[in-house]
Amino acid sequence: MATSSDIRKGLCIKYNNDIYKIIEFLHVKPGKGPAFVRTKLKSVTNGKVIDNTFSAGHKIDDVRVETNKYQFLYKESTTYHFMNIEDYNQITVEEMLLDYSEFLKEGETVTVLTNTENGSTLSVEMPQSVILEVSSTEPGVKGNTATNATKPAVLETGAKINVPLFINEGDTIKIDTEKGSYLERVKN
Fold it and tell me: CATH classification of 2-62, choosing from 3.40.50.300, 2.30.30.30, 3.40.640.10, 3.40.50.1110?
């Protein structure tokens, strides 16, 4: 048993007869009244996201989780196939268990959270940033680079993000997977 002070991003808990993963949290200590923790929980069974507030010291039932590194092999309709890097066992995961799947390319290494009680896959966590190639974007207008203007771009995985005007087709860029935003251009 854990308490509300143990809440952190990525923690899996049992709540309302389901298992939820904490995707956001904020400890709040108002001037009047007791402290509390405001959370955003994502169900690992149906992908639904809910908001919940836990009072300070509230007991929560955490789920024992094992993490392993897996390599993404391929996608087949709504299932994704991964291979364990250490023992080469393969698993299939439903799309709703993946965070930011639009940035996932073949060969990418991800972290898979597994419930130690029954061996079920709880979630697949992407790396903090990924490096992808720009497959299509409009050319930037010469002389219009002084402002923070952006333009839409399609990446090799099919994801669409906004990039600075100086980015061209074929450029390799670094993406923040959580925010889905451009970080920097990567030299080849």
Answer: 2.30.30.30
| Interval 34-81: pLDDT, tens | 888 899 988 877 778 889 898 888 888 888 888 889 999 988 888 889
Which residues, in sequence order, are CB contacts of 106 under 8 Å at separation 6+? Answer: 72, 73, 74
Q: What burial class does residue 8 get, using C-beta atoms within 10 Å of its C-beta: 0-12 exposed, 13-18 middle, 19+ buried?
A: exposed
Q: What is the pTM of this model?
A: 0.71
Count of CB atoms situated within 10 Å of the CB of 56: 15
What are the structure tokens assigned to 152, written together? 């839409």
Could you tell me which CATH class the domain 65-125 is placed in? mainly beta
Burial class (CB in 10 A: 0-12, 13-18, 19+), 105: middle
